[in-house]
Predict the structure.
Amino acid sequence: MTTRRTLTDQPCLQLKGLVKRFGDITAVDGLDLQLGQAQVLALLGPNGAGKTTTIEMCEGFLEPDEGEISILGLDPTMDGERLRARIGVMLQGGGGYPGARAGEMLRVVAACAADPIDPDWLIRTLGLPDVVRTPYKRLSGGQQQRLSLACAIVGRPELVFLDEPTAGLDPQARHVVWELIHSLRRDGVSVVLTTHLMAEAEALADEVVILDRGRVVAAGPPKDLVRCGAEHQLRFTAVPGLDLGSLQEVLAGTHRVAETAPGAYLVDGLLSPQLIVTVTGWCARMNVLMTEFQVEQRSLEEYFLDLTGRELSYR
Ligand SMILES: Nc1ncnc2c1ncn2[C@@H]1O[C@H](COP(=O)(O)OP(=O)(O)OP(=O)(O)O)[C@@H](O)[C@H]1O
């Protein structure tokens, strides 16, 4: 899609001690974040967690009360003009010109860029050919979303901010957007996105930051977050009434073992390849045939619930 950028070690986004208050509400409360080049960062959190406020400060639309922001080495408040040519912004809820036709809108944005992506290619890729002549205000919510995404990336930005890029999209359109974000990353573009969707963060992000009430409650690669927050459960079925005492002995008390229903067994505790070998090896020695074998991990969603006592996604 684009010419691949040369990778550097410089963080393209760095936030230190960021604070933003609206009257009595502290929307962002001492946030530290860093993002490397060609990385995707997902800000995850419930309504009001401070995601939009954070990215609006990064985009230069809001001024922080405290802290420092460096975007591509620039201060978005002081260097907004210089920065705007190098970043792409997709606002929550679209943000297009109501009377402008979809195709024209994208071409106007492309014309402002030195080396734009071909607008026709973006229109085809995002499934918008049938609405190029339709005014923005008459596009469906999903079409407005996709057009806004096209406008955010048509100028080949170095860093893109996408505020809930797939909100309201059907699964097929969501998949197209995910593919586009993957290809941006492959081309060396860094992406900051906000989402309520755990699956989206897991599918796209190198780094997930979970916010709650303006603070980071957890951060890391999605797999690590699931792993570090999770006790795991291994379940298997076999003939009822197995002698679980001997399995417990083999496991040396590290896991809880139970027959939860006749023939349904649960091994509860931290999961590892060694645990699977131990349990299947024990079955083999006891001449027990497992008829089902299942590993259950807690999702990021459940991890968030554990951390905050609240649900993460409720749209
Ligand atoms: N302009 C504003 N004036 C007053 N309060 C605001 C303003 N913008 C945001 N807030 C408040 O700051 C807090 C954080 O809001 P923000 O929009 O950043 O959350 P969010 O995580 O993006 O939520 P959502 O997922 O609903 O978009 C909320 O309590 C919100 O009501």
